[in-house]
Specification:
With 240 residues, the chain is α+β, with helices and mostly antiparallel strands. It has seven helices and six strands, in the order H-H-E-E-E-H-E-H-E-E-H-H-H. Strand 2 and strand 3 form a beta hairpin.
Length: 240
């Protein structure tokens, strides 16, 4: 069945030009970004989270959690991320079994046993979508407006971190932002640990409606807001 989306953005040549600096990043500080992608998967309670760059003919997975070892890229015309960069906001497929006609290659989704996908474009300062931050599940699920807004905030943090990495590499080779990298890493690591603890505590509750369970959910939401706000504030100050 033909998909309902064009396969390429209208301004593809300029988009690929905007993508080039991100392709040339030589050394993403892995502990920081690895923890950020782990945090993303944890926030949405999904097994797979990916930071992908949409290249001319392939989609490169620069960072991921939950994919099989060695999974680095996929053909662009088979990728959900190639659909997501065409949209102005978050692309959501809550049940891929019931909406395969909107995808570039439904057979690929079936082979990978994917049932849920949500992806928010990584947009440059000039507005070009160079990639996607996406979360994926092997079960259908509802994805509300608050979750979409959170994914969009996280995608903004990811592109700002990548911009900061480019900024560092364009200096004299030193890393004047090393203190900032350490600070950001410590914040993300601490948040991952706190959220993990809250999730484990919640498992011990007999019901999701006990006073303790409700308190754990409240604390989780507060932690999510705290870490996202802190990351956004520090990156805004650094890049302006």
């Amino acid at each position: 069945m033909a998909n309902s989306y064009p396969r390429r953005p209208a301004d593809e040549a300029h988009r690929l030009q905007a993508l080039r600096p991100y392709q040339l990043i030589t050394s993403i500080p892995n502990p920081l970004f690895d923890d950020l992608i782990r945090l993303t998967a944890m926030l949405f309670n999904v097994p797979i989270a990916i930071v992908a760059l949409v290249e001319e003919s392939t989609v490169q997975f620069r960072l991921n959690v939950g994919l099989p070892a060695g999974t680095a890229r996929e053909p662009r015309d088979e990728s959900l991320c190639s659909v997501a960069i065409l949209q102005g906001d978050t692309t959501v497929f809550e049940n891929l079994e019931t909406a395969p006609g909107e995808l570039a290659e439904p057979g690929f989704v079936q082979r990978m046993n994917l049932q849920f996908y949500a992806g928010s474009p990584l947009r440059t300062a000039s507005g070009f979508p160079v990639g996607v931050l996406c979360v994926i599940d092997r079960l259908p699920r509802y994805f509300g407006t608050e979750e979409q807004a959170l994914l969009e905030r996280l995608s903004d943090i990811v592109i700002r971190l990548l911009d900061l990495r480019i900024q560092s590499e364009n200096t004299d080779g030193s890393q004047p932002g090393s203190t900032l990298w350490t600070t950001l890493y410590d914040q993300i690591e601490a948040s991952v640990n706190r959220l993990g603890t809250l999730a484990e505590l919640a498992k011990w509750e007999e019901s999701s409606e006990t006073d303790a369970a409700v308190a754990y959910r409240t604390s989780t939401q507060e932690e999510i807001g705290r870490v996202v706000d802190a990351l956004h504030e520090q990156l805004t100050e650094r890049l302006h």
